[in-house]
Amino acid sequence: MRNRILLVEDEHDLVLIVADTLRSQGFEVVTAADGIEGLEKFRSEGADIVIADVMMPRLDGFSMARQIRRMAPAVPLLFLTAKSSIDDVEEGFEIGANDYLRKPFELRELIVRIKALLRHNTPDRCMSLGRYTFNPATQTLSIGNSERRLSHFEAKILEILVCNIGKTVDATELMIAVWQRDDPSNRNSLHGYIHKLRRALRHDTAVEILNHRGFGYMLVVRAC
């Protein structure tokens, strides 16, 4: 399964060059032209790594990154910038940037940095769920010869449930872990993602996500 890169950059020509090069290296690339669109793409499609320009219209890269960090504390962030001030670099790292690359840059160096960040961020572990195998790093759920790519949020929720098999996970705890806040819109989103996970797990009747109304959710794997 290919790693997904979210590339947020307002220089159209640069986006075309970088995206084509990364795709030729085997990456899946999702692009956005500014911070607002970048947030929308991250919420809807997720990403294994985010590469963002700093100076962009509507919403700058730092502001976008702050919101992404609240949604996904562990996703790698790499800033592309023409700024050279140490204060700007320091601000980026304070936000939670993992790396910084000044423009103009060599595409080869960008690829090396991306691969290094992905290696560092990828845990070498898979989780067994009855007949399923779940890989949190690649966000894939496999059974037999079939493999399904989960969304970023589906994978995060499932990982938490798998780590607590047989225990009820409080809905508020899930929402805070995934979105860093508990509000009605997150609760509705959580219900929606649980429904999608149940459909994804329907091919093994021994695996089930139970709803303990008023408390939360429990993942159970029954003995055959």
What does this structure look like?
The chain is α/β, with parallel strands linked by helices. Helices cover 43% and strands 24% of the residues. It is built from eight helices and twelve strands. The strands form three sheets. Strands 2-1-3-4-5 form a five-stranded parallel sheet, with helices on both faces. Helix 3 links the parallel strand 3 (49-53) and strand 4. Helix 2 (35-45) packs parallel to helix 3 (61-71) and helix 6 packs across helix 8 (184-200). The radius of gyration is 19 Å and the shape is globular. The mean pLDDT is 86.
How would you summarize this macromolecular structure in one to three sentences?
The protein has 224 residues and is α/β, with parallel strands linked by helices. It has 8 helices and 12 strands.
Q: Count every helix, treating DSSP H or I runs of 4 or more residues as helices.
A: 8
Q: Give unreliable regions as ranges.
A: none
- Which class of secondary structure composition applies to the elements? alpha/beta
- The ordered H/E elements are EHEHEHEHEHEEEEHEHHEE
Q: Average pLDDT value?
A: 86
Beginning-to-end CA distance, first to last residue: 30 Å
Work out the radius of gyration.
19 Å
Proportion in β-strands = 15-25%
Q: Into which percent range does the helicity of residues fall?
A: 40-55%
What general outline do the C-alpha atoms trace?
globular
User: The biggest beta sheet, please?
Assistant: 5 strands, parallel
Placed side by side, the strands forming the largest sheet appear as 2-1-3-4-5
What's the total number of strands?
12
